[in-house]
Amino acid sequence: MKNIIFVAPPAAGKGTLANLLKGKYHIPHISTGDILRSEIEKGGKYAEYIKEQINLGKLVSDDIIFELLTERLSQSDCDNGYILDGFPRNLKQAEAYDEILKKLNKDIGYVIVLDIDKEIAKKRIIGRLNCSNCGAVYNYMFEEMKPKKEGICDVCNNLLKRRDDDNEETFNKRYETYLEQTEPIIKYYEDKGVLYRINSGKGKEYAFTEIEKIINQKELNSD
Ligand code: AMP
């Protein structure tokens, strides 16, 4: 199994799809957003700065991201592949990631762009709740995504939490940041021949099936 990178605007379904892929391929889901939120919770050396940047919808400095990510990718559970969500987010990170891969002797794998309409993404953000324990995602704006019991995870019975940056104002800023800084990396990966695009507005089952097709096709060709 190879590595998978998601490139997507906020609320395109990166977290949900990563969870599904993790279940199927038994590889870890590494989200730079989660790594940063856990730094804040642990009160790590960069905690205050990271919190401020996240709440403003701005990117955290590249150097901090490189340090935290290299440390995480060096762990042995990444040896057979991983799903990277939230990184790279700009061209400088994409170039640095090539260096990190070289250093760790890893392959780029698949870069999957999740395309989604801005208004659908906004609705997903405003209603989103995450399980504080298992990471399952729910949404009050969509009937089929509501938890069975209000505020409680269907999977593990733990409390659901809303992220501080899941509000309309921060969403608009995050979306703008995506267009300005993250979209340019699409061309970078297109030129390397590792880019795939999926319409993520058609629901998670559709997107998941499309990703499975890409992986099956590619693994067949490399046999
Ligand atoms: P996410 O959970 O991917 O939506 O990320 C939440 C926030 O964490 C972003 O809005 C950024 O402030 C920060 N963040 C996550 N990943 C990165 C990254 N690769 N580079 C810089 N900042 C990041």
Describe it for me?
The chain has 223 residues and is α/β, with parallel strands linked by helices. It has one domain: P-loop containing nucleotide triphosphate hydrolases (Rossmann fold, 3-Layer(aba) Sandwich). The chain has helices spanning 14-25, 32-42, 47-56, 62-73, 91-104, 118-127, 168-182, 184-192, 204-221; strands spanning 4-7, 29-31, 83-85, 110-115, 128-131, 137-139, 160-161, 195-199. Strands 2-3-1-4-8 form a 5-stranded parallel sheet. It has a 3-stranded antiparallel sheet with strand order 6-5-7. Strand 5 and strand 6 (137-139) form a beta hairpin. Helix 4 (62-73) runs parallel beside helix 5. It is globular, with a radius of gyration of 17 Å. It starts with a strand and ends with a helix. The structure holds adenosine monophosphate. The site of adenosine monophosphate has 17 residues, from helix 2 and helix 3. Adenosine monophosphate binds at residues 10, 31-33, 36, 53-54, 57-60, 65, 86-87, 89, 93, 174.
Total number of strands: 8
Number of helices: 9
Under the CATH scheme, the architecture is 3-Layer(aba) Sandwich
**Which structural category fits the helices and strands?**
alpha/beta
How many structural units, i.e. domains?
1
Strand content: 5-15%
Radius of gyration: 17 Å
How many angstroms does the end-to-end distance come to?
Answer: 12 Å
Main pleated-sheet profile: 5 strands, parallel
Residue windows where pLDDT falls under 50 for at least 5 positions: none
CATH fold-level topology: Rossmann fold
As laid out across the biggest beta sheet, the strand order is: 2-3-1-4-8
Shape verdict: globular
Ligands (ions, cofactors included):
adenosine monophosphate
SSE string, helix = H, strand = E? EHEHHHEHEHEEEHHEH
